[in-house]
Design goal:
- By secondary structure, the chain is of the alpha/beta class.
- The protein folds into 3 domains: 18-139, Rossmann fold; 159-388, Alpha-Beta Horseshoe (pyruvate-formate lyase- activating enzyme); 394-454, Nucleic acid-binding proteins (OB fold (Dihydrolipoamide Acetyltransferase, E2P), Beta Barrel), CATH 2.40.50.
- The protein contains 13 helices and 19 strands.
- The strands form 5 sheets. It has a 6-stranded parallel sheet, sandwiched between helices. Strands 15-16-17-19-18 form a 5-stranded mixed β-barrel.
- Helix 7 (189-201) runs parallel beside helix 8 (227-237) and helix 12 (325-338) packs parallel to helix 13 (365-388).
- The longest helix is centred in the C-terminal third of the chain and has 24 residues, at 365-388.
- The termini are far apart.
- The structure holds iron/sulfur cluster.
- Iron/sulfur cluster binds at residues 168, 170-172, 175, 177-178, 212-213, 250.
């Protein structure tokens, strides 16, 4: 607890205090913010869609990119006036940025009441209580998490995340995660199965297993637990799960056991996110990624030899310190060679506390922009070509809900994570449908529903 400001009591007058919570990062952040919402719901809070209607405003933040942090400070700046008009409004910053910046957030945004790091978010209710009694609260100490969860709190009825592990031991030079999340800690396999069972009973048909380096799941338990074993047990013990995926993979841990497990378990997704970051061996070494481009290629070959219909996605960083035109050219060539379905491209920005932050950020902003554009254009061309191959094919689509653009249509995803729009009854939501693809656009596939007995793929 830090020195106080005038006592506030946002919760006193209303039976159901209102919270606005925005999560601003990766899937792990989304999961953690769901855990926070579960705690708040249990304590009687009601979620509202705008900060203006809330008693408590919380941002669940990311620190991986400078842009993400700027966005949070932008949001906090916009709340200054509201806080001035309503001093009892409680404003909190949670997650990676809170862990990384700690009380510096109070210096830059003095109207913030609460800063909660990555190990303390489960204590959100008592921490709000401290704020309620007049304290400005900083909670960034390390504590073991319980993973206690309200299964009913999730954005979609049929989809859920399952956090299998936290932390990362890898220390890539550009990455803040090992500092904000700590060392790798895996949850026991039985705990995950128990949680997954509850989720499936509650209607979940699609489960995404989360970890910063998910392929290392179980290694720290030292009892033979692996990601492959977890997938296999979820697949066999929970037949109600129609799709099972995991994120994020690291190329160093693509084992024969894991590739075989994906291949032999048809409900495991045929879409894998395998970040490469650069196509230059020199840059990969400078990043401490732990593999060469040839080792990366071998991981892809292993996967494709066992799972020929697998679609791959990746991450790239452009403009890492010292990246030359030649290094960047190697990235372009590798992108075309692997033929990714998706690329997520990030312009390098130094993260305080990382090893790379000590290096000169030598690539000019305009060059980063141009490289970013070039990779995205290249990826768009490849993605369009991959999508066009689906025309005339029948695909099995897991239906997510009405299309956001056209409510008369449904939206779902193929087993390779392509978005498909088609007309059909709402009763298909949360189930699989067979769709004949008639059109491919830059963003999606469009088709018509087919009778089940015409399925041939
Ligand atoms: S593997 Fe590297 S990039 Fe991924 S979380 Fe760990 S340190 Fe960060």
């Amino acid at each position: 607890m830090l020195s106080g400001h005038p006592p506030m009591d946002p919760l006193a007058e209303r039976a159901a205090p209102r919270v606005y919570l925005e999560d601003m990062g990766c899937q792990m952040n989304r999961m953690d913010s769901e855990l926070v919402l579960g705690k708040l719901k249990k304590a009687g809070f009601e979620r509202v869609p705008t900060p203006g209607g809330a008693d408590v405003v919380l941002y669940y933040t990311c620190s991986v990119r400078e842009h993400a942090e700027d966005k949070v400070y932008g949001r906090l700046g916009a709340l200054k006036r509201l806080k001035k008009d309503r001093p009892d409004l409680v404003i909190g910053v949670m997650g990676c940025m809170a862990q990384n910046h700690k009380d510096a957030i109070f210096d830059r945004a003095p109207h913030v009441d609460l800063v909660v790091g990555t190990s303390r978010f489960e204590d959100v209710v008592p921490l709000l209580e401290e704020v309620r009694h007049g304290a400005r609260v900083l909670a960034v100490d390390r504590k073991e998490l319980s993973f206690d969860r309200d299964a009913s709190v999730r954005p979609r009825k049929h989809q859920a995340f399952l956090t299998a592990m936290r932390g990362c031991n890898k220390f890539c030079t550009f990455c803040i995660v090992p500092f904000t999340q700590g060392r790798e800690r895996s949850r026991p396999i039985e705990d995950l199965l128990a949680e997954a069972r509850i989720l499936v009973q509650d209607g979940v048909v699609e489960l995404t297993i989360l970890g910063q380096r998910i392929d290392t799941y179980g290694l720290d338990l030292r009892d033979g637990t692996t990601l492959a074993k977890l997938l296999s047990r979820l697949h066999s013990e929970l037949p109600g799960l129609l799709r099972l995926s995991f994120i994020t993979s690291h190329p160093n841990h693509m084992t024969e056991e894991l590739a075989e497990t994906i291949a032999s378990h048809p409900r495991v997704s045929r879409y894998l996110h395998l970040p490469v970051q650069s196509g230059s061996d020199r840059i990969l070494q400078a990043m401490n990624r732990g593999y060469s481009t040839d080792e990366y290629r071998r991981a892809v070959e292993l996967l494709r030899s066992r799972v020929p219909d697998l679609a791959l996605a990746t991450d790239w960083i452009v403009g890492y310190p010292g990246e030359t035109d030649e290094d960047f050219g190697a990235s372009c060539r590798l992108l075309a060679e692997i033929g990714y379905q998706n690329s997520f491209v990030f312009k390098y920005s130094p993260r305080e506390g990382t090893k790379a932050a000590a290096l000169e950020d030598s690539v000019p902003r305009a060059v980063k922009e141009a490289r970013n554009e070039r990779l995205l254009t290249l990826q768009d061309e490849i993605s369009a070509s991959l999508r066009s191959r689906y025309r005339g094919q029948r695909v099995r689509v897991l239906v997510e809900g009405p299309s956001k653009r056209d409510a008369s249509r449904l939206t779902g995803r193929t087993h390779t994570n392509l978005i498909v729009h088609f007309e059909g009854p709402d009763s298909l939501i949360g189930r699989e449908a067979l769709v004949l693809v008639e059109e491919s656009t830059p963003l999606c596939l469009i088709g018509k529903r087919e009778p089940e007995d015409s399925y041939s793929a």
